[in-house]
Specification:
The complex is a heterodimer of chains A (719) and B (78). Chain A is an alpha/beta fold. Chain A is built from 32 helices and 10 strands. Chain A has a 7-stranded mixed beta sheet with strand order 2-3-4-1-5-6-7, with helices on both faces. A two-stranded antiparallel sheet of chain A has the order 8-9. In chain A, strand 8 (463-464) and strand 9 form a beta hairpin. The longest helix of chain A has 35 residues, at 516-550. Chain B has one domain: SH3 type barrels (Roll). Chain B contains 2 helices and 5 strands, in the order βαβββαβ. Chain B has 78 residues and is α+β, with helices and mostly antiparallel strands. Classes of the chains: A alpha/beta (719), B alpha+beta (78). At the A-B interface, helix 4, helix 12, helix 14, helix 18 and strand 10 of A face helix 1, strand 2, strand 3 and strand 4 of B. Strand 10 of chain A pairs antiparallel with strand 4 (57-61) of chain B. Chain B: This is FeoA family protein.
Chain lengths: 719, 78
């Protein structure tokens, strides 16, 4: 007995961690409550990765059932399988088990939004062609009822033979257990029969598929019929007799575009079903509440959009302050305590000047990043981003893009990497690349630390009427990023990416209260990425910079500092201790490297410390603050405990302050436009499938930032 | 009369669709097909794009595409 239990533990652990017994895909329309349901079914046991070879996020969770662990794969929300977008192709490939490393799922959980049965049933009918055992979770029935719509679930069930329909209210956890019961033995059930919406297509495709002796599935043939001159068609043509596809196509679609005929056929069936299932004729004008209707009018909506954006930036700056002050004070107390405990030697300097000053100076910005991501996630989950795309379509048209580019651009205020991935909803390749190249201009959360540092140090904290002055400067920097991105997109659309005007078709979800758990999970995901970077890349850079600044040690100081070396204090009033520290820094490896590159950045008004920090920031821009933190901590004046204070008191050897207004403004603009992010470059490479665009983006943005900073400093210093 | 000529608050039945335009097919895939009853909900500044609702679902449509949908106006709840 004891042996059995010993064996049982590892087997169970493997069952959970490695190979779940069965996997199921979770699929549905965007905003159908899919993520919330997924979170309720899997709890916190989720991982996010990428599918091999593509950048679509693979979101997997483990669901515990009575008979063991099951794997749930959350697919991106889509409206149809006809658009040939990457998300749609991934959905088909995952369900048919065609991706490496992803086993063919045993079944499909389809999330059907009761308030959007029309488009939901359309997608379901398309998916049923894949012949996978299916369970339908009917969500949002509470919302539907609140709007006076009741759904006859038995009638719906009767129109979907072979599929179980289960009502679920995720937010109140109703129906979750019953749904789990259904999923538990779903893999044993037969796949549903032919979908009823367009039998002619299903049967023709099945007949053709049967003739390929298992090489093609019914879905493959349907894809090849619906999409002439696609890869699917080439494959099907190779396996079938000449002309078979062509004659089937003529019979099914006549002279009309295949997708138009499919939409007509299937939606006609869906409408018939709705007539039986909805207890009253669907009310028109049910979109949004009355208040929503007023807010959706052109002018109020546009004003509300800008007010909301302004609120976000105000919040990022003012709400975060107390938390940031606390972290700052904590880090500097810790540094003092550590250096007191570890002494003045190498260890003490390493711990307090290298680690705590370096990593601490980045962690300080966690509260701002949290607030920013919170806003972006809430805006996304409430359906507001789609609304913003609708409102801004006209503006985007003036730069040759469409409202569809607005969603990635707004998300790149958080981070350009997911934003660049989000561009895959843009169907036209040229529009997509223009958006990809505009996205890194938007002020991402990694730019926030240096903006915040410089603004806090050099912009007075006063207020201008209702607004905080520092908040206004920050807002200006965001506008600068937007401006840079839009002008870039316009120039590209006029030259290298010239093409037809983009089509703009977008489903507009109504506003919905975001689910707290889902928002928190997404937020945690982002925070984890930030902390991981702080703990790895930034930690490593802080260590390297400390080593470069600390070695080689000057035993006897002989040479006076070079003419371009800065010291922390003006020449007058320097203590011998401070002079020795400054001397040490200037003859360290870092000091030598800094002086070597200084001529390049000197016309911008940067001393060697700023230049070194900027260079160190090319792999990941948030490193800059950490490097400045370390550089200005080594040999620092103990009177100034915060980095901002140390920057303010930094001077050139002749006593002029380094951080003058033109220099700070130039540095901010450089930072706004320069592309300092290896992750963004790698993502551009993956998404555009060529090195041409990331290389172009890097040179273009770096040159732009340099020239702008040069002009601002040179002109500003002469005024 | 085409969909582009309707004003916010008005409803209509789609009579026929010119399927030769790529953007139009993408609207059909979202459910704008013949015999569907649609309503203009709102518009962005300048009256373009317009927000069209049908069966509780809402879709953003540019006027240039709305022009390819022939309609007949109906009274609400028709």
């Amino acid at each position: 007995m004891a042996d059995a239990s010993v064996i049982e533990v590892p087997v169970k652990a493997i069952g959970i961690r490695r190979k779940a017994r069965h996997s199921f895909v979770v699929i549905g329309n965007p905003n159908s409550g899919k993520s919330t349901l997924f979170n309720r079914l899997t709890g916190l046991r989720q991982t996010t990765g990428n599918y091999p070879g593509v950048t679509v996020e693979k979101h997997v969770g483990i669901m515990q059932t009575e008979i063991g662990a099951m794997e749930l794969i959350d697919l991106p929300g889509i409206y149809c399988l006809g658009g040939q977008s990457l998300d749609e192709r991934i959905a088909v490939d995952v369900i048919l088990g065609r991706l490496d490393d992803v086993a063919r799922p045993s079944g499909m959980l389809f999330v059907l939004d009761a308030t959007h049965l029309y488009q939901g049933l359309y997608l379901l009918e398309q998916l049923l062609e894949m012949q996978v055992p299916t369970v339908v979770a009917l969500t949002m029935t509470d919302l539907a009822r609140a709007r006076g719509i009741t759904i006859d679930i038995d009638a719906l069930q009767a129109r979907l033979p072979g599929i179980t329909v289960r009502e679920v209210v995720s937010t109140r956890r109703q129906g979750i257990e019953a749904l789990k019961q259904e999923l538990q033995d779903l893999h044993e059930r037969a796949a549903p029969d032919f979908p009823a919406s367009w039998p002619a297509l299903s049967h023709t495709a099945q007949e053709l598929a049967d003739r390929t002796s298992g090489e093609l599935t019914r879905m493959d043939v349907i894809q090849s019929l619906l999409h002439p001159s696609s890869d699917a068609e080439a494959r099907a043509n190779a396996l079938l007799n000449a002309g078979e596809l062509k004659s089937a196509r003529e019979e099914l679609f006549g002279t009309e575009p295949p997708q138009a005929v499919e939409a007509r056929q299937r939606y006609r069936w869906v409408r018939g079903v709705l007539g039986e299932v909805l207890n009253e004729a669907p009310l028109l004008g049910q979109v949004g509440a009355r208040l929503g209707n007023w807010l959706n009018r052109p002018w109020p909506a546009t004003v509300a959009f800008f007010a909301l954006m302004a609120l976000v930036f105000q919040a990022v700056f003012s709400w975060a302050t107390p938390m940031m002050d606390a972290i700052d004070a904590g880090a500097s107390d810790l540094g003092l305590w550590v250096s007191a405990a570890a002494g003045d030697g190498m260890l003490g300097s390493f711990l307090s000047d290298g680690l705590i000053a370096g990593v601490g100076s980045v962690i300080v910005f966690l509260p701002q990043i949290l607030i920013l991501f919170l806003f972006i996630i809430v805006l996304e989950d409430s359906g507001y981003l789609a609304r913003a795309a609708f409102l801004m379509d006209r503006v985007m048209r003036t730069v040759g893009l469409s409202g569809q580019s607005v969603i990635p651009m707004l998300s790149s205020f958080a981070c350009a990497v997911p934003a660049i991935m989000a561009t895959r909803v843009i169907p036209d390749r040229r529009d997509r690349i223009a958006t990809i190249l505009a996205a890194p201009f938007m002020t991402c959360s990694a730019r926030l630390p240096i903006y915040a540092l410089l603004i806090a140090a050099f912009v007075p904290a006063g207020s201008l009427g209702w607004f905080n002055l520092q908040g206004i400067v920050l807002f200006g920097l965001y506008l600068l990023g937007i401006f840079g991105g839009l002008v870039t997109a316009r120039l590209l659309k006029l030259t290298a990416l010239r093409g037809p005007k983009p089509v703009f078709v977008l489903a507009l979800p109504e506003f919905r209260k975001p689910d707290l758990v889902t928002v928190l999970l997404k937020l945690w995901d982002r925070v984890r990425v930030f902390l991981k970077r702080a703990g790895t890349v930034i930690f490593a850079v802080a260590v390297v910079v400390w080593v470069l600044a600390y070695f080689p040690r000057a035993e006897v100081v002989t040479d006076p500092p070079g003419p371009s070396v800065t010291s922390m204090q003006g020449p007058a009033g320097d203590t011998p201790q401070q002079q020795a520290e400054a001397m040490q820094l200037s003859q360290s490896w870092l000091g030598r490297m800094g002086r070597w590159v200084e001529p390049v950045f000197e016309p911008l008004g940067w001393d060697w410390r700023v230049s070194s920090a900027v260079i160190a920031g090319f792999p990941a821009r948030e490193v800059v603050v950490a490097v400045l933190g370390t550089l200005y901590a080594v040999g620092s004046d103990t009177d100034e405990e915060t980095l901002a204070g140390r920057l303010r008191s930094a001077t050139w050897p002749d006593g002029r302050p380094v951080f003058t207004l033109p220099m700070v403004l130039g540095l901010l603009v450089f930072y706004a436009w320069c592309l300092q992010c290896a992750a963004t470059l790698a993502t551009i490479r993956r998404e555009t499938n060529s090195w041409r665009w990331p290389i172009f983006a890097w040179f273009y943005m770096t040159t732009l930032g340099y020239v702008a900073a040069l002009l601002i400093y040179q002109i500003g210093s002469r005024l | 009369m085409t969909l582009a000529e309707l004003k916010p608050g008005q409803s209509a039945r789609i009579l026929s669709i010119d399927t030769g335009v790529p953007g139009v097919i993408r609207l059909m895939v979202l459910g704008l097909i013949e015999d569907a009853i649609v309503r203009i909900e709102n518009a962005a500044i300048g009256g373009d794009p317009i927000e069209i609702s049908l069966f509780g679902t809402s879709v953003s449509v540019r006027r240039q595409h709305a022009r390819h949908f022939l309609i007949e106006p109906v009274t609400a709840h028709g």
